[in-house]
Amino acid sequence: MTQKILLVDDDVNLLSACERNFHGRFQLETAAGAEAGLLKLAERGPFAVVISDRQMPGMDGIKFLSLVRERAPDTVRMMLTGNADLAGAIKVVNEGAIFRFLTKPCPVEVLGKMIEDGLAQFRLVTAEKELLSKTLNGSIKLLTDILSLMEPESFGRAQALHEVIATVARKFNVTDDWEIQLAAMLSPIGNVTLPADVLLRARKGEMLSKVETQLVANVPETAARLLANIPRLEGVANIVRYQHKNFDGTGCPVDTVKGEAIPLGARLLKILADFSKLQDEGQTRAGAIFQMESQMGAYDLHLLTAVKHFYHDSAAHAAGRSDLPIAISDLASGMVLCSNVETLEGTLILCAGHHFSDMTIEKLKNFDRIAGVKQPILVAMPEEALPEAAAKRGGAD
Fold first, then answer.
1. Distance (Å, whole) CA 187 – CA 153
2. What gap in Å lies between CA 64 and CA 279, rounded to an integer?
3. 3-state SS class at 363
4. From CA 224, how far away is CA 182, in angstroms rounded?
5. Could you give the C-alpha distances from 219 to 215, 227, 234, 255, in angstroms and in order?
């Protein structure tokens, strides 16, 4: 964790005095002016604490600390000024979210104490963020692990969509594509509220009663409410909520949201879900895309075109790929499953498109010990792993 402090002031004598007084006590760096401070922030950051003079030629301290806040939001910001008017102080605090506001001349012992307070605040903020991050990541991992066991078909489909989601998100300059990825994986969580027989008949496309139909229609909203209880997953919950909404605003949920007001992730997941459903019904990729393009108002056509191009490019790439049949004992993290994996009795364990991790490999080994697993397993591997795998198989033969 960084303990560095950056002091920015146009008074070089003050900077030199602070360097002398705090030498050996703090990791202090200085910059003569706001422009030099921004350069040092970019080249030498991150800094735990940034202290700036208010009145500087060119860019003043208010603007400078506002930019620091944008570029390094965790950095604790403090201001030194010779102008102690109340209105100016309020403006500084409001616009720069200042931790401490100090007036010149500021005694060395006071400035030193404020720096120590700033470092303590920085440690507190970063520790809380780290705790939240670990809690969030742990919650997500628990949910995905449970879903991979309870909903292998849905979860396998979601994992298979990873590459297309990432590619389309890059094309549309989506910075938070992790939200779409997570929404795709966690969207089946609402299924846990359905009776098992209703879920099974819904998946088979069998007739449902009016009440059962409504229960199935409510699954995205139920899932969204469950996910909204987890901090920082509000965006994910909103994508899940609107994943079946038509682009023209029809469909569930029934509200006035339509067009680009529907979260981009939800528009993309609807396209991918319907595309997969049409393929399951026997349509070719080209036929499925053609049918979807003819359904006016159902989809965002710009996204649909991007998905169409992705599958065209991936088909060309797959034509030159060699899938490798291997035993469970030869599986390794990073391999991609090319066909479904089932027990000897025909129970689905993992779906094609699954990216193997240490956990899922261990899961397969456990299934094999208890019920037996159909082998060999067809996988694709990163190119750099192919020679090693081939050598391993050659030795086994």
1. 12
2. 55
3. helix
4. 12
5. 7, 12, 17, 16
351: amino acid identity, one letter = C
Q: CA 55 to CA 103: how far, in whole Å?
A: 12
Distance separating the N- and C-terminal Cα atoms of the chain: 51
pLDDT digits (tens, 9 = 90+) for 151-166: 666 666 676 677 788 8
Residue 76, classed as helix, strand or coil, is: strand
The pair of three-digit structure tokens given for residue 380, joined into one six-digit string: 């694709």
In the prediction, which pLDDT does 242 show? 94
**8 Å CB contact between 351 and 340:** yes
* Residue from 396, 283, 244 nearest 329 by CA: 396
Q: Helices in 346-385 by DSSP H: which ranges?
A: 358-370
Q: Which residues contact 239 (CB under 8 A, 6 or more apart)?
A: 179, 180, 183, 263, 265, 266, 269
> Which residues, in sequence order, are CB contacts of 214 under 8 Å at separation 6+?
none
Contact by Cβ (8 Å): 270, 210? no
Task: Of 127, 129, 116, give the one whose Cα is nearest residue 78.
Answer: 116
Strands 49-53, 336-337: pairing kind: unpaired
Which of 385, 371, 320 has its CA nearest to residue 341? 371
Length of the chain: 397
Q: Is residue 6 within 8 Å of residue 39, measured between CB atoms?
A: no
Q: State the virtual CA torsion across 307, 312, 315, 317 in degrees, nearest 10.
A: -100
Mean pLDDT of 204-231: 87
Cα distance between residue 242 and residue 264, in whole Å? 10
Would you list the DSSP string of 308-355?
Answer: HHHHHHHHHHHHT---EEE-GGG--TT-EE-S-EEBTT--EEE-TTPB
* pLDDT (average), residues 70-89: 77
**pLDDT tens per residue, range 353-369:** 777 888 778 888 988 99
Residue corresponding to tokens 């742990």: 138
Name the residue type at position 82. Answer: G
Q: What angle do CA 29, 32, 33 make, to 5 degrees?
A: 120
- Tell me how crowded residue 181 is: count the other CB atoms within 10 A of its CB: 19
Q: Cα separation of 223 and 281, whole Å?
A: 26
**Bridge partners, 28 (sequence order):** 5
Model pLDDT, residue 30? 95
Q: Determine the residue type at 71.
A: R
